[in-house]
Amino acid sequence: MSAAPLVDEVSAGPDQSTLRLALMVGGLVLAVLLGFGLGRLNANGAAPGSPSLATEHTDPPGVAPHSHGLATAADQGAATEPGGLAVSSAGLTLAPLATEFEAGRPGQLRFQVRDGQRRPVTRFAIVHDKPMHLIVVRRDLTGYQHLHPTMATDGTWSVPLTLTQPGLWRAYADFTVVADNGAQTAVTLGTDLVAPGDYRPRPLPGPATSTTVDGFTVGYQGTPQVGTTVPLTFRVDGAGGAAPLERYLGAYGHLVALREGDLGYLHVHPETELVDGQIKFWLTIPSPGRYRLYLDFQVNAKVQTAELTLTVP
Q1: Quick check: 189 and 95 in contact, CB under 8 A?
Q2: 44 contact partners, CB below 8 Å, separation of at least 6
């Protein structure tokens, strides 16, 4: 029985050019799918990789100087509660690697910001020259520190930290996350730190509209009211009159307000320029009570912090 012609066996399957075309198309499809999957992993809350920092925090057009840290009720237009009261908010969690420090001894605070799947978030906007502002204060509102951690490629933030006195301390991570679509959300999360030892809380100083720090006299004008945004202007004077204020972290001043008791947190942004030589803020007080104000300002390349107590009836 004679064998069938070889040409018939070859024609029974696809020719080599068709196979090459099919393999090329399949490879392109696989590359697109892999690229999409990796892109999703490296977006907000990515798997460990290079940190992704947006160039600058952006607010909607026409937004005036405002406060970060205020949570807004879903059915109200005004901010109702300060931030930093919880370790989790907006689907994000502040996860410190350790919370105990030896009083007076330099240490290192390390933490991550994790998403709902417990993955470290690595996309943050630059706000006032930094992607992360960390405020640390003891429960009696002493020992205020304004720090700027740095982030490693795995999303772990670290910063040198010394808790100067024994007691319970509060750390606030103030940051803005960037979503897959580029949307930015400002979040403030808080966690407790502890320095074991003999905790002797100091009484909160009485209310005052002026104070002195390192030879400067700092005073403010304005009457904060609950639920209403009002101007608060700070004047800084040196020995020869108005101090030559310099920009620090992109602004002439930074104001943090902490509520006595639960330590609710407000971080208030100022006008971009001085107003009659003064730093002008717009402050919204969420509830009656006593607040400790911390004003950071810079003169001759040195940052100073003025502290004042404010009582709002």
Answers
A1: no
A2: 115, 121, 122, 123, 177, 178, 179, 180
